């Protein structure tokens, strides 16, 4: 077997131990005589799988009892609509901070249903920083205030001090930083994440929502977009993404075995530091994000020469470092180093970059 170091932004690397466990259980789960894929979602065996996944989410993220954990479909992108439909029912207004493509898309979608106030944006500098805000910039009447916690494409990340100071309910897209670092759930009304970055294969979306926010929806909201329906049916109003939830459970078990999110955060900080330290010392490679807003998970960098970037991407691929090309809207390179990327992968990449720099001076 030959496994590459996969720096993809998503779908991304999964822990080998998880893949091996899934392979061992592929044709028969426990002594059920069937694969999880073949199992009725109404069976007691499957109920145990989804209950275990929820229990692990609650344990690993310290989800308080007054929050509901949902496993939905439609990707993070469906939440762009679900959030205004479920929260935009009082004033019909929401504040958005535009820190990149995903926040922009979320705001655009929300505009179809409610009034969106774009409070701040970092578009002026290609989203290379997180804008400062202060309380006076926010609408006290807003139904919620929306941020993208970690900007997968541009490699920026919210730190404690830039989290909006608003009285409105905070909503955050944590698709690319979920379980990579500790997040205080109590600060937020909704946190959500597509699974394919840090939680498992594509197909499941984790939504954590405070109970008092579930109920009302905008008129015309499709049944499948109502949090209340999914809560009342334990995420099984219809057939859930059964295998994806099982895989998510295996990934969470792996996180728990590693010592939990806090331990992974330490490793992630170490991994990111290795790469950022090199970028800060290199004559050839430069990080594109201001130091104080740098992501632990997605690290974009450039040489400043497009041809050299392309040469680097091609040679990296040949050497077993795949998917290191930057997002099509940004160019350059991007190394996504999610939980499943081992520290050895980052060290090997930096060694490779050093060699490339020496050879291409
Ligand atoms: C990948 C990503 C999305 C889109 O996720 P889908 O599951 O493809 O809809 C949204 N937000 C962030 C921050 C992402 O990284």
Q: How would you describe this structure to a colleague?
A:
By secondary structure, this protein is an alpha/beta fold. The protein folds into 2 domains: 17-257, Aspartate Aminotransferase, domain 2 (3-Layer(aba) Sandwich), CATH 3.40.640.10; 261-359, Alpha-Beta Complex (Aspartate Aminotransferase, domain 1), CATH 3.90.1150.10. 34% of the residues lie in helices and 16% in strands. It has 9 helices and 14 strands. The protein has helices spanning 16-24, 44-61, 75-87, 101-110, 227-232, 242-257, 261-281, 306-318, 343-359, and strands at residues 5-6, 67-72, 93-98, 115-121, 144-148, 150-151, 156-157, 169-173, 190-194, 205-210, 286-287, 298-302, 321-322, 333-336. The strands form 4 sheets. The protein has a 7-stranded mixed sheet, sandwiched between helices. Pyridoxal-5'-phosphate binds next to helix 3.
């Amino acid at each position: 077997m030959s496994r590459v170091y996969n720096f993809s932004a998503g779908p991304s690397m999964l822990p080998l131990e998880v893949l091996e466990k899934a392979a061992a259980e592929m044709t028969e789960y426990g002594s059920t005589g069937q694969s999880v894929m073949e199992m009725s979602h109404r069976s007691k065996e499957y109920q145990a799988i989804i209950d275990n996944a929820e229990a692990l989410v609650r344990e690993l993220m310290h989800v308080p009892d007054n929050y509901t954990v949902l496993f939905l479909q439609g990707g993070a992108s469906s939440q762009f609509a679900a959030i205004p439909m479920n929260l935009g029912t009082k004033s019909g207004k929401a504040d958005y901070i535009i820190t990149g493509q995903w926040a922009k898309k979320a705001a655009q979608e929300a505009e179809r249903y409610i009034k969106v106030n774009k409070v701040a944006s970092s578009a002026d500098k290609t989203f290379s920083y997180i804008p400062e805000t202060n309380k006076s910039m926010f609408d006290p009447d807003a139904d919620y205030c929306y941020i993208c916690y970690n900007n997968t494409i541009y490699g920026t990340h919210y730190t404690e001090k830039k989290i909006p100071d608003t009285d409105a309910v905070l909503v955050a897209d944590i698709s690319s930083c979920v379980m990579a670092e500790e997040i205080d759930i109590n600060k937020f009304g909704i946190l959500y994440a597509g699974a394919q970055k840090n939680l498992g294969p594509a197909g499941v979306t984790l939504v954590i929502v405070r109970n008092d926010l579930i109920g009302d929806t905008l008129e015309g909201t499709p049944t499948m977009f109502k949090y209340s329906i999914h809560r009342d049916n334990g995420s099984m109003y219809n057939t859930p993404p059964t295998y994806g939830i099982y895989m998510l459970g295996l990934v969470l078990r792996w996180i728990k075995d590693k010592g939990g999110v806090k331990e992974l955060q330490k490793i992630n900080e170490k991994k990111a530091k290795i790469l950022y330290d090199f970028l800060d010392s290199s004559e050839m490679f430069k990080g594109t994000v201001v130091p104080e807003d740098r992501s632990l998970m997605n690290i974009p960098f450039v040489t400043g020469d497009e041809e050299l970037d392309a040469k680097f991407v091609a040679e990296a691929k040949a050497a077993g470092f795949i998917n290191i090309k930057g997002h099509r809207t940004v160019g350059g390179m991007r190394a996504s180093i999610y939980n499943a990327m081992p520290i050895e992968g980052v060290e090997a990449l930096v060694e490779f970059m050093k060699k490339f720099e020496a050879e291409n001076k």
